[in-house]
Amino acid sequence: MGEKTAARVSINxxxxxxxxxxxxxxxxxxxxSRYIYDxxxxxxxxxxxxxxxxxxxxxxxGDSWFFNRLFVPPEHRRKGIANALMEELVKILDAKCITLRxxxxxxxxxxxxxxxxFYKKFGFKKTEEGFVRxxxxxxxxxxxx
Length: 145
Ligand SMILES: CC(C)(COP(=O)(O)OP(=O)(O)OC[C@H]1O[C@@H](n2cnc3c(N)ncnc32)[C@H](O)[C@@H]1OP(=O)(O)O)[C@@H](O)C(=O)NCCC(=O)NCCS
Fold this sequence. Notes:
This protein is an alpha+beta fold.
């Protein structure tokens, strides 16, 4: 087993988010961190409480990559944070040419059907191999801004 390599990159993103309560649009700004290891990738959004960050985590088991966790703390849901995490994640999947397997196990606000539509938006498909996202591009240098 080779040594693990890690890269942490912080990106500040701003976007218009929709308030779940009033429906108004407002500008939000988050710091996204990417931790990239040989067999583990975490995208995290700093929400001022390290125990309660929003995260997308994937890991490699054997030759296959699996989605471990997509979680946004309840008090920060419906602000577009999961969308932001997934946008970062799919950039890395494409840049590193990773095929990612996923299982939908809802344990929060969204139902199975809602999560299915959500993941499909990011390229996941039901295939004979399960619910999978294949990379869109050939392997390339990871230079995600
Ligand atoms: C699933 C989860 C990560 C979504 O996080 P979020 O930050 O609230 O999601 P976003 O605000 O980015 O919304 C993503 C999309 O889902 C929709 N959505 C979010 N919550 C919803 C809800 N309660 N009902 C209906 N749609 C919802 C949004 O409208 C948005 O759709 P759009 O991109 O078409 O506009 C969050 O609810 C969570 O952590 N749940 C518990 C853990 C879980 O179930 N993880 C999935 C395991 S497979």
